[in-house]
Amino acid sequence: xxxxxxxxxxxxxxxxxxxxxxxxxxxxxxxxxxxxxxxxxxxxxxxxxxxxxxxxxxxxxxxxxxxxxxxxxxxxxxxxxxxxxxxxxxxxxxxxxxxxxxxxxxxxxxxxxxxxxxxxxxxxxxxxxxxxxxxxxxxxxxxxxxxxxxxxxxxxxxxxxxxxxxxxxxxxxxxxxxxxxxxxxxxxxxxxxxxxxxxxxxxxxxxxxxxxxxxxxxxxxxxxxxxxxxxxxxxxxxxxxxxxxxxxxxxxxxxxxxxxxxxxxxxxxxxxxxxxxxxxxxxxxxxxxxxxxxxxxxxxxxxxxxxxxxxxxxxxxxxxxxxxxxxxxxxxxxxxxxxxxxxxxxxxxxxxxxxxxxxxxxxxxxxxxxxxxxx
Length: 375
Known about the structure:
By secondary structure, this protein is an alpha/beta fold. The chain is 29% helix and 25% strand. The strands form 3 sheets. The protein has an 8-stranded parallel β-sheet with strand order 8-7-6-5-4-3-2-9. A 6-stranded antiparallel β-barrel has the order 10-13-16-15-14-17. Strands 11-12 form a two-stranded antiparallel ribbon. Helix 7 crosses helix 8. The longest helix is centred in the middle third of the chain and has 23 residues.
């Protein structure tokens, strides 16, 4: 195993990212463009380096959550097309305009508020076809078309697209499959109703990561690739029909090794008591680094290519392992919390399943104090 780099660090494999871009591109239909979703610091992988690598791979479309993220992308990619999926205060219309950023238009009222600022803002209109989060909501394609047509008449908005978000595209439940099909049908019908009025937008998009994997078609003009870019599954319980490679590994080091007798407890709350004499290693990572306290007493880590269980509660900056099966465990040894060591692998999805969340949250939650090392 390699030498330690820091007290804890996340290794980001740019070659794995390149591989995933190629795999996703091969799945996309001709004519569709990839829109890389790089919000939340590129899902915790480090926005700047990820954006630069994606840009070098020829990706021109990016999706973010907010204006600050959009401006970060703009600073690195002067010619990129950047869509803000979330809310931007209307008083920021001038910044949107000057930075040439596309804003998601989430309601008629929001459209009017942006328009009132007197600066021309590019926009894609968000349709709520069943996600129930943000977006225009109407009862029929014609009613949607009426509202959208009104928005297109606002002189300071330049509407260039329609989009919606698929809520259960990562489910194989028959009702969920039918629901996803209804969402796709809805945005297509709305687009058709607009075309009858001679209103056509360059972009009509709805395929997210799960949409591409399980509901791919040749109508969505953009594929908003998020979690699959980083090598994780939208739903860990479903087979992913792509060869994806995890981009992030999380590693730390052993700082201390000791033997404890039977009956001795470990960590806060005395939730773990040794039933027999064991060898304990302390590792320099904790919940302040984004390794969840909910993994206390549940997760394994890898030491010398072998699984070792966490014992006692994960602390803010440290955690403890039972390394009784590792003959030569010593301070300075590298510990793998996510990733591969020898023939063993621990994935973000494995950790997520242990405390009832999703792989997205695991990688997004690795804190800023954990340096990203790009390899």
